[in-house]
Amino acid sequence: MTGMSRRTFLGLSTAVAAGAAATALTGCGSSTGHRTEAASAKVKLPAYVPFTKVTPDLPANAKGLSAGYLSYPEELIRSVPKTPGDGSKVTLLTEIWTQPPLPKGSNEHWQKINQELGVDLSAILGTDPGYEEKFSATVAGGDLPDLMWIPPNQGIQHIAELLESKCADITDYVSGDAVKDYPNLAAMTPAHWKTAVVNGKIWGAPSPYPAFGQVYAGNPEVWEKAGGLSASSPDEFLAKCKEVTGGKVWALEPIYVNAVSVMSQCFGTPNKWRQNKDGSLTFWQETDEYLAALDFVLKLKQAGVFYPGDPKMADAYLKMAQGSIGATVFANPSGGRANLRTNDPSLAAEILIPFAAGGRQPNHHYHLGTIGYTALKKGSEKRVRMLLGVLNYLAAPFGSKERELLEFGTEGADFTYDEQGFPQRTKKGKQQVEGFYSGLATATTAPFALLPSAFPGTHGPEDVKATYAVEQKLIGTAIANPTVSHYSDAYTEHYGRMSTEATDLVNDIVSGRKKIGEWKPFWTEWRSKGLDQMAREFQKSIEKNA
Predict the structure, then answer these.
(1) 326-358 per-residue burial string, b: 16 or more CB within 10 A, e: under 16
(2) Can you give the pTM of this predicted structure?
(3) DSSP-assigned beta bridge partners for residue 416
(4) Which string of b and e fits 141-165 if b means at least 16 CB within 10 Å?
(5) Burial per residue of 14-32, b for 16 or more beta-carbon CB atoms within 10 angstroms, e otherwise
(6) What's the order of all strands across the beta sheet hosting 204-208?
(7) Which of 179, 186, 204, 485 could connect to 49 by a Cys-Cys bridge, CB 3.0–4.6 Å?
(8) ω before 183 within 30° of 0 (cis)?
C-alpha cells in the first residue's frame, strides 16, 4: 500500500491480531465475556480458492512468496459479473495514506465507482496520525458507518465489545465453502482471515499486506565502497558500517528500536513469541537472543555509525536517498525498494539478508499479512450480503477490469498507458483517483502481488524480479508469530503501555542514559504486571485450537 507514513509502516510490522490498548471506545456496551481467548481458537476459516484467470510470471507459494508480474495483461478479465449494490447509501470509515481526493460531488471517478458498485458510497477518510481519534469520535456519535476499517496497531481498545454490540458476525456468510459466493474474498489465504477473528467469529474482510517483515534497505551508492549491504557476521557488518561512515555520511538511521528489531533476527529471536516444548510462551524481547541484539546495537552506537539525530526522526528515508544515511528500516522488502525509487528513481535499494550471529541461526520475521480488516454494521441478511458484495468488488485482483478502474480510473481522463503498457495516472487521476483508491484499498484489496506499477520510474520489471529474489532468500529462515489468530484479553489491556516503556528503555540504553543491565529486570517486573497473563491466555487458545 503506497503512501503509508513511517510510523505506521513500522508499527504494522510489529502489531499482532489482538491489537494494542490505548484509546477507549464509547457508545458500545460490553456484551462479551472476559475470557475470549479460548473462543477465538474455534472458528472455521474461509476456504482458500486462489484466483487463476491471470497467470503471474513469478509464482506465489503457500509460504508467503508474492506473485510477480512483469507485464500488463493484454486483455483484462472481469472478476465481478454483476453489480453488487442495491442502490442504497453506504458509508465507509477508512484511512488514506496520501493526499485526500477531490470530494465526491466534484469527483467523476468517485461517481463512476459508485455506478459500478451500485451504491451511493460516502467515505469518512481518516489520516495517519489521527485515525484512532477519528474512529473513536465516529463510534461515540452513535450512528456507525456501514463499513469500518479496524487496524491492529493504532491503540483502539474494547474492539471485541464494539463488534459484538454493533457489528455483523459474518462467520456464516464466509466460513468454509460459504466464502465461494464472494470469489475475490475467497482468494485470501487463511493467514489473512485469521486477523479478522475475535471471540471465535469472523468480523470482516481482511486488508492484505506483504507477508515479509522488517528489513534494512540501503542506498547502493553509500555501500559500494564496502562491497555492498551484505554481511556474514556481526563483525563484518560492524566493519562495513564503520567503513561507509565518515564526513557527512552515517551508515544507519538513529531509530534504535528498529535497529534492534532487525538485528534480533540475526541473533535468532522468535517472531514476537516463542512456543516452548512444554507449550508455554516466551515474549521475544525477554529472550537472551534479543538481549544479545541490543548489546550489538549498543556497540554500533559506540562506534558512531548512527546518524546523530532524533530516534523518532521523520525524514530518514529522504536522507538515505540523498546519501547522508546508508540504510533505514522498512516494514518489508518491496516497501524499501519502492520508497528509494520514489525519492531517487535512479537508485535500486539493497536489502540486508539476516546473517547468523551469536552462534544462532537467523530468523526472518513474517509480518501479519494484513493491516487489519473492515467490519460491517449489523443489519438484515440481505443488507450484510450486499455489503459483502461491495467488499468483494473492492478485492478485485490484478489483471481484472475492476482493479484497473479502482486503481487508475478511466483511460484518457485519469490514466494513460506508458511505453511498457502499464497504466500511469494523469494529473487529473492523481487528484481524483489516488487518494480515493488509497482509502478503498485500506478497507480491503486483493492479496499482495509484486507489480511494476508499484515502483516509480522505468525499472518496474527489474524491481519486481529483484524483490522476488529477496523474498526467496528470506523464506529460507522466515518464521511466523504463533499467536496470530489467537486472542488475549491481557494483551489488549497491557501491551500498548508495555511496548512504549520497552521502546523508551531501548532508546535510553543505546543512547547511554541507562545501563544494559536494566533490561532483564524490566521484564522480570513486567511478568507480574501482565506479561505472564498474556502468555497463559495465548497458550490456552493455542492448545484448544490444536
Answers:
(1) bbbbbbbbbbbbbbbbbebeebbbbbbbbbebe
(2) 0.83
(3) 424
(4) eeebbbbbbbbbbbbbbbbbbbbbe
(5) bbbbbbbbeeebebbeeeb
(6) 120-126, 89-95, 147-150, 370-376, 204-208
(7) 186
(8) no
